From TrEMBL, chains A, B, C:
It is found in: Cell membrane. Its main location: membrane. PANTHER family: INNER MEMBRANE PROTEIN, UPF0126 INNER MEMBRANE PROTEIN YADS-RELATED. The chain crosses the membrane at residues 6-28, 35-56, 68-88, 178-199. It comes from Prauserella sediminis. This is Putative membrane protein YeiH. GO terms for cellular component: plasma membrane. Residues 10-85, 97-169 form the Glycine transporter domain. Belongs to the UPF0126 family.
Amino acid sequence: MSTAPPLLLALDFTGTFAFALNGALTAVRAARLDIVGVVTLGMITALGGGIMRDVLIGAVPPTAFQQWPYLALAGGGGLVAFALSQWLDRLETPINVLDAVGLSTFAVIGASTALEAGLDVTPAILLGGVTAVGGGTIRDTLVRRVPSVLQSDLYAIPALIGAAVTVVTIRAGIYGVWAALAAVGVCFVIRMLGVHFGLQAPVPPAHRDGNA
Amino acid sequence: MSTAPPLLLALDFTGTFAFALNGALTAVRAARLDIVGVVTLGMITALGGGIMRDVLIGAVPPTAFQQWPYLALAGGGGLVAFALSQWLDRLETPINVLDAVGLSTFAVIGASTALEAGLDVTPAILLGGVTAVGGGTIRDTLVRRVPSVLQSDLYAIPALIGAAVTVVTIRAGIYGVWAALAAVGVCFVIRMLGVHFGLQAPVPPAHRDGNA
Amino acid sequence: MSTAPPLLLALDFTGTFAFALNGALTAVRAARLDIVGVVTLGMITALGGGIMRDVLIGAVPPTAFQQWPYLALAGGGGLVAFALSQWLDRLETPINVLDAVGLSTFAVIGASTALEAGLDVTPAILLGGVTAVGGGTIRDTLVRRVPSVLQSDLYAIPALIGAAVTVVTIRAGIYGVWAALAAVGVCFVIRMLGVHFGLQAPVPPAHRDGNA
């Protein structure tokens, strides 16, 4: 997003690096991978959601292929994870915080990009969510895990709320740097509260009673 | 398809809801999911095939994001499955019938849309098949099942036959509401005969002899 | 690529058939599939990487749907694998050689296509790699295997090197039939050396020491 304000762009770059780092570490834990696998899965985690959004709104080639910092940060995050995976495993908390920054920023930028591309309110919110969780979903599928976003934790829900705040403020004509940061902040706070208190989304009734 | 005749559109909406319901129920049985997972997989089952087709023919944003009834019916089907999964498990036969309606309608509309977009006969038939089975394939992959369409039952074959009837009648200049309904009917009947008699597509020779 | 020189086109067709054959055989070994599954996975292996590239650069409908030899060769390879899977299992070496021809040609054509579409050097090299390994990655995921390209052997690395030679010679203004064949040859030789000597890409440090 070359037109995004500097602070939002800085958050977007931070999120890209954090997603690549965290995505590659998760992949290393879940499957036996070589350097190609670790770096690829880091890059897919960081860039996959935005690429899915860009393909779906017809903005191809995707931003990730047109602005070099995204590829560089995603590849760099994957390489750092490859080299330092043992050491980084001890940094769970700061990595979780940076990952929440990425989740929040991707949801906000994804939703505003989709709305600018002419999508209606509901699809734009959904594409904000896709931008935020799409990369991790592809990664989990490639290492044969049911995507964690479908199973546990509050991960998609804060992203959808952040995307909704974005879309509502744009439609209300009050979107700008501050509204964007507020939307990022809302998603970030809900996500961190979810991590801290171990909040879970509801499961189907059948699973509530027994141990299905 | 805002230009589709009302009866075909009604079948398309019915199929969308049925695919979401059935897709979400299948997902609930295969993996431990929360509400985000159940509704997401219902929506992916209902909309994924059409989105794949639209991306492949360059018709983006996909129809599913441009005409609200599709998102509403898909999300609604997923929510109903979430709330009533225990009760719906007893309704296997009517859900199978509605699912076959969706399979048939998606194959016919998918093939005609692809042909209108300028594709040749064979790719248009294949994209009819992709429209019909693509969403369920993504769902199965996400819950770590080998897609059932690749393994058993007559599911892709009736869809391809329905798509072929569609394409042939369009090329013969006799396509219209009645030809479309005939193509839907052909696919539907073959699918239901397959369900009723437990018909299977051929397996590779090695598997015929032993229990590989 | 109707504009590719005849020799490169012949290699591309050979690779398409070989990928379909090898992809379908791999799928038969990994999962119990019917004829729909075997042929579909052969076609996805052969065409999936090129389709991903075309979608990402906005060249839709993809080449695979616009030039009939690709669909015919991919479908034919899948059908041959279905009929002769037991017998073909004995032909591992020639199939590996033909597969390396496909890997090399797909990487070179993929990178040059991406560069012509206006992508920069690094994304064009990556898309050459995606063209070469994308189809096999989708196939592995559908039959519930962690994609082998992420885990073992030199497979993506020779493809990326072939793509890099392609991009560098195009940018240097010396690309043509001979440069393309040289790039194909570089990838092919590295791949075959890797197969012959059992070369592996590096794994993360944690895996070097123990048996994680």
